[in-house]
Design goal:
Layout lengths: L2 E3 L9 E3 H10 L18 H16 L4 H14 L5 H11 L3 H8 L12 H9 L9
Antiparallel strand pairs: 1-2
Helix pairs in contact: 2-3, 2-4
Length: about 140
């Protein structure tokens, strides 16, 4: 008989036969993952909305390209708490786009496709438009 570690055991040394392990897995309550690997959130409670906003903040500051970290992170820090759910959807869609592509859109090196040319994107671009250098 094959033995496997039983999931959820108080003692990791507890062993369970393979068929029992399969039955435990089938009866376990797991949440499905979205395409991005995050558990889907229902936006019905304030707690879920807070979690969603925190997740967006983390994603905005950890883009992979330092310039985009600054551009997206500063905008999100300044506005995410006041954005309605529809604009949060637009923001998450924008965060799914590759950094170099969004950077070219924001720097006006390439035109913005209609799907992403939303009022939110225009506000992000305007947020970083300055007439004189910024003192950091």
């Amino acid at each position: 008989m094959i033995y496997l570690f039983a999931a959820g055991c108080a003692n990791p040394c507890d062993l369970a036969p393979a068929p029992e392990m399969a039955a435990r897995r089938a009866n376990s309550c797991t949440r499905p993952l979205s395409a991005r690997g995050f558990p889907p959130l229902s936006h019905s409670t304030p707690d879920d909305s807070d979690i969603r906003r925190k997740r967006i903040k983390i994603r905005a500051w950890r883009r992979g390209m330092r310039e985009m970290d600054i551009l997206m992170g500063r905008f999100v820090d300044a506005t995410v708490d006041s954005l309605p759910e529809a604009e949060l959807d637009d923001l998450e869609a924008l965060l799914d786009v590759e950094d170099d592509v969004v950077f070219r859109w924001l720097s006006r090196a390439e035109p913005v496709p209609p799907r992403y040319d939303t009022s939110l994107f225009r506000r992000i671009a305007a947020f970083h438009t300055h007439e004189k250098p910024i003192d950091l």
